[in-house]
Amino acid sequence: MTKTLRVGMIGYQFMGRAHSNAWRQAPHFFPLKAGVELHTICGRNPANVEAARAQLGWQYAVSDWRQVVDSPEIDIVDINTPNDSHAEIAIAAARAGKHVLCEKPLALSVKQCEAMVAAVKQAKVVNMVCHNYRRIPAIAQAKRMIDDGAIGQIYHYNARYAQDRLVDKNAPIVWRMNKKISGSGALGDIHSHIIDLGRYLVGEFAEVSGLMHTFIKERPISGSSGGKMGRVTVDDTSMFIGRFKNGALANLEATRFALGRKNYIRVEINGSLGSLFFDFEDMNRLKFFDNTNPLDRQGFRDILVTQRGEVHPYVGHWWPPGHIIGYEHTFVHTIVDFVNACVDGKSVQPTFQDGLMNQRVLEAVEKSAGSRAWVKV
Amino acid sequence: MTKTLRVGMIGYQFMGRAHSNAWRQAPHFFPLKAGVELHTICGRNPANVEAARAQLGWQYAVSDWRQVVDSPEIDIVDINTPNDSHAEIAIAAARAGKHVLCEKPLALSVKQCEAMVAAVKQAKVVNMVCHNYRRIPAIAQAKRMIDDGAIGQIYHYNARYAQDRLVDKNAPIVWRMNKKISGSGALGDIHSHIIDLGRYLVGEFAEVSGLMHTFIKERPISGSSGGKMGRVTVDDTSMFIGRFKNGALANLEATRFALGRKNYIRVEINGSLGSLFFDFEDMNRLKFFDNTNPLDRQGFRDILVTQRGEVHPYVGHWWPPGHIIGYEHTFVHTIVDFVNACVDGKSVQPTFQDGLMNQRVLEAVEKSAGSRAWVKV
Amino acid sequence: MTKTLRVGMIGYQFMGRAHSNAWRQAPHFFPLKAGVELHTICGRNPANVEAARAQLGWQYAVSDWRQVVDSPEIDIVDINTPNDSHAEIAIAAARAGKHVLCEKPLALSVKQCEAMVAAVKQAKVVNMVCHNYRRIPAIAQAKRMIDDGAIGQIYHYNARYAQDRLVDKNAPIVWRMNKKISGSGALGDIHSHIIDLGRYLVGEFAEVSGLMHTFIKERPISGSSGGKMGRVTVDDTSMFIGRFKNGALANLEATRFALGRKNYIRVEINGSLGSLFFDFEDMNRLKFFDNTNPLDRQGFRDILVTQRGEVHPYVGHWWPPGHIIGYEHTFVHTIVDFVNACVDGKSVQPTFQDGLMNQRVLEAVEKSAGSRAWVKV
Amino acid sequence: MTKTLRVGMIGYQFMGRAHSNAWRQAPHFFPLKAGVELHTICGRNPANVEAARAQLGWQYAVSDWRQVVDSPEIDIVDINTPNDSHAEIAIAAARAGKHVLCEKPLALSVKQCEAMVAAVKQAKVVNMVCHNYRRIPAIAQAKRMIDDGAIGQIYHYNARYAQDRLVDKNAPIVWRMNKKISGSGALGDIHSHIIDLGRYLVGEFAEVSGLMHTFIKERPISGSSGGKMGRVTVDDTSMFIGRFKNGALANLEATRFALGRKNYIRVEINGSLGSLFFDFEDMNRLKFFDNTNPLDRQGFRDILVTQRGEVHPYVGHWWPPGHIIGYEHTFVHTIVDFVNACVDGKSVQPTFQDGLMNQRVLEAVEKSAGSRAWVKV
Q1: Which residue in B237, B241, B289 is closest to C259 by CB distance?
Q2: Within a 13 Å sphere around the CA of D227, how many CA atoms are in the beta-carbon half?
Q3: What per-residue string of b and e applies to D151-188 under the rule 16 or more CB within 10 Å gives b?
């Protein structure tokens, strides 16, 4: 008899929609070790959360996250709230014995992250930080290939996460531009993704020299009369050069000021035997240069990562070759592995520990950008 | 109070999976004029259909399609069976007053299609043939732009639908290779898609000169002992040159013998003011050459068709710009429009009439390939 | 002591410029078996030919081609005149014992071509038709790979040569639109190139079903007062489907009505073991799909055909890897091989015989387009 | 009567070949204000320089550069020697009243560069540093567009110059790996190019934080017996983040350890109205995102920079649209502008002053990499 895991999800905006979809879809496409029940959705505004409940397919709606954490019926707590509340909720959930899935960045500070890691360790609950891009089939395939030695020793990790959503000077202030709530701007929100991919695919960072910048320092307050302006207290862009512990060199840049780049995550890894290239806007493809091919036939291979069965990670559970998948599927893959981990009672990557390690890099970049000095991670 | 439409779906293989997903997902992402209930799934093998019911999210499973058609509880019949049963089921469903959605090709012959069109007209039911590629956002955007005059008078429609799934000589015989069941091979299965896109984007075909070919004429019978071989009675590839009624020229090719092409649907349209280019394997993109740009700044524009709201068709209901969608979403869009059409009591494109017109082109190509003469559509 | 071959070139327009450049450049980059001397340039207008002489680097200028053919000092006659004079000049040159390089298409008709082939055979002179695209390094590399069996048995040859230079209705009449001088329009001028590549890379054509069309039938006469219009007597576009003698299928299209396509020569070849793809506008690249790669690492390989030495054909004589070459270099490669052939006294491909075979395909397409029937080549 | 300028060229390796070609070709394709004569080629090894003379098309060969500088017959000195001799030769040439074209980097140090600038100023000779990539038509077009305001205020300059020629551990030591002769490795040789493009397209650099690294510190000495190894005293890679004086952010990386990248110069510039993207391996293309296009039709435009006449810079002097040019043509364009500048008696960009400014950035990067601190340029 298959067990059923009941989920309580806190936060119902963008990430709440993506996670709800994943909870709904996972059982229809993947063999799960347990059933999942979309039990309770939680948000602060009762009317909005009820609307979200109906739209997103949950059974119950509540407006106090403690109701979720305290509910004896709930097995899993899925945290999609703004960054400043991650730590408190996650620690409470762990203490209540719930398995915890938490959106990235894990929290506002290394200190918060350390407390969260301590809490899940003590409680022995399964924990995961939702770096969903690890489970893009092309990225998971890249990981497999690197582990197989396909590109040899890594020399370079060069990545850029670029969007253009803040180029418009009239784009209003949102919570993500308030340092108290979000911790940082591009750094925590998007840069953290390519830092995570670096840690996943290359190794641990050793030291960084960073730069952060805010191009537009005041923006209109949404809905305010008379054109009131608010101060942007986070970075529009952050970048750093650095070194990995294994000797590879790093060059990472995240920006919201690159017109034409919508959700462009360009990752290039150069090794002693080959290179890999990925661009999220073509997320079903992985480019692979194999230096062991005959010299006259070498070239970047455009792998359409959509083969059936287990040939390529995850994607074979969806549609036939060449029938591409999208952004939302990365959350489904994350949920699939998380659910199975909950049944097994053993966390799978990326754990809260990964979230902590990521935060250490974020803090190092921020510290370096402030002190204008190299900083060890 | 919103009405709820109850759906009976017949056939649960590849298309059944894709349609089930669409029925489930549509209400979570789009404002529908009615609720939808995944009421009954139907298939000939009771054990398999019960497994599909559980996996795909239906309430009831039956093994005789007449139970679906005759059920007073069901409002919509969704037909995903092999091509030889489309006509009989669709006509029965129409006579029973059900709205009918039918997979393509609409039937085995023009004659069958004519009977189906007559049946839905007489019964005044909403009807649609599932040419889902019309609702790829990039294709719907192309249609908008052509209707707006963005490329002017059309001179060329050059399209190729290429797969590689039959290059392997040991790929076994399946029902799609049996002319009695499928009507044709690449012609009806994939060529019909680019014929439909031609009719949608350019206009009606006037005349064709076609060629059909079977590269591998015998294939192993799956599961048979002693290496028994069966005869392939359909085309591996079909191609034709021709003319549209509006004077545009046509060049279409469909093949299952193009290694490396997984589900490659390359469409190029050249007009007097610009050109459009689409490739399904990059389905979130539409290339547009605008000859009215200054001469030194002209070039194919790579439109990432993922803008919010109603800027681009359909896609704004999913995720933010740059967060791509996949194959399955085209079925959701189809279901959304079909459900709303059912509520409005008025069919939307592509109707059974479109299925019939498509079949006329298929028959013309087949006749031309046989007679080695030009054939009027 | 190295011999020196003296060249007489007839015609100094577009092709004359390209050939002159090749004669000048070849000795600086390639080891030739003989020196070359740009001896005499010939054109009908004495003032213009003198200006061309100075600009293009020739010693003497004459205005009667017979002076070139009859000159005892000249070893090689290079014919770049309009198509209607190729036969007469080439035959006279051969009879005079000159080696002959002739622009494509070889002549206006199969009959003319046959006479030319007879003449060079009888005179035992080295002869070549200038299908320069054979010596694009990427194409020469494709030929090597096909000969090595890299893509196995060929199933499909699908090619399109597209330009946009005649979309403008006000583009004036030129000699290429006069059937008497040019023989045909897109067919002989650009279609002949992809026919030649088909013959080079795949094999001999067996039969065709063709279509030719003129979108704009009247155009202004250049320089005429009062907006006089002239009749276009050649095709703007031609296309055909067909079969090669070895069983491969053919689909070729040539057009001057594809906006945004400047000199777009797209060639795709699908075989039993792999596929090749080429696009002239990215002429330094060859795409190769190798079905023998591990299934999870397959993809079109983007070969940058610029390796040093003899790794890739011809290109290693120019610059280091990644330093691309352009259109004009294909003529240099042609001249290099032609000069060495003259010294060896043995023609190399493509010979006049190739020009004749090409013309047979052109005539078959034209006949088929006229009779609306399949025609054997 | 047109004047003729006589050229003396010192150094005949890679750059000497490229320059010789440019001197030969310029008059055949461009209207020059003076004739040019390939008068004297100079190199230290008499036998080799004589061979180069014959191969590259020069009249005289000498083995002491002072013979060139001192010759009253010579108007222009073109310096292609290793970097350590640039300053001495250039200064002597200027003092002798010659116009001077010098390969990049201009010299080994800021101090040397300053002396060179002083010398050419005092002598009032026309001077140019050969940053040939400025005259890639796509780059020159980018410059025009930026000057026209097509992308507005610039936010980001993100560039990478990647090659793979040193990944092979057995690649032998050459002069470019000896700091005394070359000054630096990737930094001066290739990084200087993207620094120059940054200065040309964006503006002056203000400050940098840099990193330099040598992956392989010992390499075989070419031709030595017994596998003797030599020490690499320059960088394999260098990168920096920084700021331009106008507030734009900079991220530049140069490496010779990126397998599959042959001469990959990727440049992206993001501004307030649009973005530009360039990749040298597709050097005939410029990608342009124009944020003023209608929102549903925005996308990176793929401009094939090959239009006729003066529509696109330089390229219209070569071949028709779509007929691409290559690496060597950038030198021809440089020579054309330099020759005309010599006649006009007025230097054109990039002058020795540009070489000096470039060197200041190089030194700042090197200093920063050494001190691990931010350095003002």
Answers
A1: B289
A2: 2
A3: bbebbbbbbbbbbbebbeeeeebeebbbbebbbbbbbb
- What pLDDT score was predicted for residue D176? 87
Q: Which of residues 238-267 of B touch C (CB under 8 A)?
A: 239-243, 249, 251, 253, 255, 257-261
Is residue B71 within 8 Å of B97, Cβ to Cβ? no
Asked if residue B102 lies in contact with residue B128, where contact means CB atoms within 8 angstroms, the answer is yes
Please identify which residue in the block is written with the tokens 């949920």.
A335
Contact status, residue D374 vs residue D363, Cβ threshold 8 Å: no
Task: Enumerate residues 6+ apart whose C-beta is below 8 A from D247.
Answer: none
The candidate with the shortest Cα–Cα distance to A194, out of A151, A233, A242, is: A242
* Prediction ipTM score: 0.96
pTM for the predicted model, two decimal places: 0.97
Q: D238 with A251: CB under 8 angstroms? A: no
Burial class (CB in 10 A: 0-12, 13-18, 19+), B298: buried
List for chain B the helix, strand, coil content (%; round to 5).
40, 25, 35
C-beta separation of A310 from A141 below 8 A: no
Q: With the CA atoms of C231, C236, C240 and C246 taken in that order, what torsion angle do they form, in degrees rounded to the nearest 10?
A: 110
**Residue range B105-117, pLDDT digits in tens:** 999 999 999 999 9
In chain B, residues with a C-beta closer than 8 Å to the C-beta of D144 are: 296
Q: Is the peptide bond before B105 cis (omega within 30 degrees of 0)?
A: yes
Give Cα D227 distance to the centre of its chain: 35
Bridging pattern class, strands A60-62 and A35-42: parallel
| pLDDT tier, D1 (very low <50, low <70, confident <90, very high otherwise) | very low
Chain B residue numbers touching D290 (CB-CB < 8 A):
297
- Identify the residue whose tokens are 């002598």: D123
The CA-atom distances, in angstroms, between C282 and each of A26, C278, D240, D326 are: 43, 8, 32, 11
Rg (alpha carbons) of chain A, rounded to whole number: 21
| One-letter amino acid of B213 | H
Residue in D closest to B140 by C-alpha = D296
Question: Please, which residues bridge with residue A37 across strands?
Answer: A6
Query: CA end-to-end span of chain A, whole Å?
Result: 47
Whether C112 and C137 have beta carbons less than 8 Å apart is answered as no
Q: Which residue of B has its CA nearest to A283?
A: B324
Are the Cβ atoms of D260 and A275 closer than 8 angstroms?
yes
* D352-371 and D192-201 helices, crossing angle to 10°: 120
Question: Where is average pLDDT lowest: A3-17, A82-96, C203-217, D215-229?
Answer: D215-229
Give the list of residues 6+ apart from residue C51 with CB closer than 8 angstroms, or none: none
* Length in residues, chain A: 377
Query: At residue B87, what are phi and psi to the nearest 5 degrees?
Result: -60, -50
Whether residue A214 has pLDDT greater than 50:
yes
The full length of chain B comes to 377
Amino acid making up residue D283: M
Looking at the complex, report in whole angstroms how far the Cα of residue B165 sits from the nearest Cα belonging to chain D. 30
CB contact under 8 A, A296 and C312: yes
- Token pair of A94, please? 């762990």
Cβ atoms of residues B321 and A263 within 8 Å: yes
Neighbours of chain C (3+ CB pairs under 8 A): A, B, D
Distance from C-alpha of B93 to C-alpha of A100, rounded to nearest angstrom = 49
Residue B309 φ/ψ, nearest 5 degrees: 60, -135
Residue type, position B351, single letter? T
Strand D249-255, strand D264-271: pairing: unpaired
In tens, the pLDDT along C155-200 reads 999 999 999 999 999 999 988 899 999 899 999 999 999 999 999 9
| Cα-based angle D187, D193, D197 (whole degrees, multiple of 5) | 135
Q: In what side-by-side order are the strands of the sheet with C60-62?
A: C60-62, C35-42, C4-10, C76-79, C99-103, C127-130
Radius of gyration of chain D (CA): 21
